């Protein structure tokens, strides 16, 4: 079956532009996560969706970052007025929540480069 | 605050040798601990899960241990291969929370 799909795989943008990153989770997975990974660093939690609602968005670094999810499926992460510090790999993961036994399935990520 | 600490930060070994990666956590209440492998340019993939009652679990050449009393886990890789070169991430889940706590990972390089 298909895994978690992210697009684009690479995005180069100019400072100040807006970008949209897309995540298609595994069918039936109601939980969806976004993470940021800077070069050589660990994964940084951004936001968690359960269905279409986001009970935990505590990791979003600023109000330039937003995310939405529709139809308990596709999610988009939007970064407005991009800055060079936003350059990183953005990873999406999905899971079928089992009350604390979550196995996360990750996409390959979107490599964002802000020039 | 829930935390997961991994050591060493990086490790270089020769092909065929064994190695052990360490993970210490302060996550409460503890639910389970997973080891993920992240190849360069890819997302992490789960290798194994350890629950409170499990002390050791093997998955091929990978063997994970858990000491719930000392809150430590290890991942032992036997007879390393070039394809083992990756980042190994320790992730601990807490009961009642859907947000697991990630360690920063150990970068393993296996040289021929």
Topology:
The complex is a heterodimer of chains A (115) and B (112).
Chain A: E1 5-7, E2 10-13, E3 19-24, E4 31-37, E5 43-50, E6 53-56, E7 65-69, E8 75-79, E9 88-95, E10 105-106, E11 110-114
Parallel strand pairs in A: 2-11
Antiparallel strand pairs in A: 1-3, 3-8, 4-5, 4-9, 5-6, 7-8, 9-10, 9-11
Chain B: E1 3-7, E2 10-14, E3 19-26, E4 30-38, E5 45-51, E6 56-59, E7 62-67, E8 72-77, E9 86-94, E10 101-102, E11 106-111
Parallel strand pairs in B: 2-11
Antiparallel strand pairs in B: 1-3, 3-8, 4-5, 4-9, 6-7, 7-8, 9-10, 9-11
Shape of chain A: globular
Residue share in β-strands of chain B? over 45%
What's the number of helices of chain A?
Answer: 0
Anisotropy-based shape of chain B: globular
Class of secondary structure makeup of chain A? mainly beta
Number of strands of chain B: 11
Question: Element order, helices and strands of chain A?
Answer: EEEEEEEEEEE
Can you give keywords for this protein?
heterodimer, A: 115 residues, mainly beta, 11 strands, globular, B: 112 residues, six-stranded mixed beta sheet, five-stranded antiparallel beta sheet
What does it look like?
- The complex is a heterodimer of chains A (115) and B (112).
- With 115 residues, chain A is mainly beta.
- Chain A contains no helices and eleven strands.
- In chain A, strands 2, 4, 5, 6, 9, 10 and 11 form a seven-stranded mixed β-sheet that branches. In chain A, strands 1-3-8-7 form a four-stranded antiparallel β-sheet, with no helix packed on it.
- Helix content of chain B is 0%, strand content 60%.
- In chain B, the strands form two sheets. In chain B, strands 2, 4, 5, 9, 10 and 11 form a six-stranded mixed β-sheet that branches. Chain B has a five-stranded antiparallel β-sheet with strand order 1-3-8-7-6, with no helix packed on it.
- The chains are: A mainly beta (115), B mainly beta (112).
- Chains A and B meet through strand 5 of A and strand 4, strand 5 and strand 9 of B.
């Amino acid at each position: 079956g298909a895994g978690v799909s992210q697009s684009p795989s690479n995005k180069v943008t100019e400072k100040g532009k807006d970008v949209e990153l897309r995540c298609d989770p595994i069918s039936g997975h109601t939980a969806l996560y976004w993470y940021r990974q800077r070069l050589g660093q660990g994964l940084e939690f951004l936001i968690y969706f359960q269905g279409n609602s986001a009970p935990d968005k505590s990791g979003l670094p600023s109000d330039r970052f937003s995310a939405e999810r529709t139809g308990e499926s596709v999610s988009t992460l939007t970064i407005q007025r991009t800055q060079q510090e936003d350059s990183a790999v953005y990873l999406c993961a999905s899971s079928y929540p089992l009350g604390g036994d979550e196995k996360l399935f990750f996409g390959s990520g979107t490599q964002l480069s802000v020039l | 605050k829930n935390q997961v600490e991994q050591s060493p930060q990086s490790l270089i070994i020769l092909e065929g040798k064994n190695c052990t990666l360490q993970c210490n956590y302060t996550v409460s209440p503890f639910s389970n601990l997973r080891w993920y492998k992240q190849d360069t340019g890819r997302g992490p993939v789960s290798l194994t899960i350890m629950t409170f009652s499990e002390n050791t679990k093997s998955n091929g050449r990978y063997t994970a241990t858990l000491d719930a009393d000392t809150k430590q886990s290890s991942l032992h890789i036997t007879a390393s291969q070039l394809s083992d070169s990756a980042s190994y991430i320790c992730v601990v889940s807490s009961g009642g929370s859907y947000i697991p706590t990630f360690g920063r990972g150990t970068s393993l390089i296996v040289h021929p």
